[in-house]
Write a structure and sequence with these properties.
The protein is an alpha+beta fold. The protein has two domains: 43 residues; 156 residues, no CATH class.
């Protein structure tokens, strides 16, 4: 009787260990696939050949000033030189709620490109913030925290230098203000971000 119980217990432990191992391997594979998908999605904002994969994630999120929101940051390199910082964050101030944005910056803070990854804005109106619906989002390319001057980082209807989308001024303003806030955050922390990136690259490459 005792011997039978011991055998049953042993088999149970063996099966439990096997299942645990399978679950761990499966979870790791799923996480890896998710990370690869995110990296591919982020990298698509950069011109072909602009950097050498992989992207390097910064473990500490970037706090966006004046808000309770944070951005995740990935860094891109080419020939071991800093090439671009990618900021992924969400503003809650859209007309219909959250707008998730991706901002690609040169190391000095100049905007390479901006993309809207997700939103709930009205089709035919607010969805013009998408780069495949209109060229509105392209007006930010080549700008920086100081170009235009800080007082120009608002909608034209408020005296700023950025066009708004007709019948979608709240949506437009939300995106403009979110980009300005992200640029301020990056300008404040860019030295630290790239120092962290250099250390993280060394750890991964080793």
């Amino acid at each position: 009787m005792i011997q039978t119980l011991l055998k049953t217990l042993l088999l149970t432990l063996v099966f439990a260990g096997a299942l645990s191992g399978v679950h761990r391997l499966t979870s790791e594979r799923i996480d890896e696939q998710k990370q690869n998908h995110v990296a591919k999605q982020l990298a698509s904002i950069l011109p072909p050949g602009y950097f050498e994969p992989p992207l390097y994630p910064i473990t500490e999120p970037l706090m966006i000033p004046g808000t309770n929101h944070i951005a995740t940051v990935h860094l891109a390199y080419q020939n071991e030189q800093p090439r671009a910082a990618l900021l992924d964050w969400t503003t809650p101030d859209g007309y219909s709620g959250d707008i998730r944005l991706l901002l690609a910056l040169k190391p000095d803070g100049e905007v390479i490109a901006v993309r809207v990854l997700d939103h709930r804005e009205t089709p035919g109106l607010g969805d013009a913030i998408e780069h495949n619906k209109s060229d509105w989002i392209q007006q930010f390319e080549g700008t920086s925290i100081n170009t235009p001057a800080p007082n120009g980082w608002q909608a034209d209807r408020l005296g700023g230098e950025f066009d708004t989308i007709s019948s979608a001024t709240i949506t437009s303003s939300a995106v403009i203000e979110a980009i300005a806030s992200a640029l301020r955050a990056y300008d404040r922390e860019r030295k630290t971000l790239w120092e962290q990136g250099a250390g993280h690259r060394q750890t991964i490459d080793d």
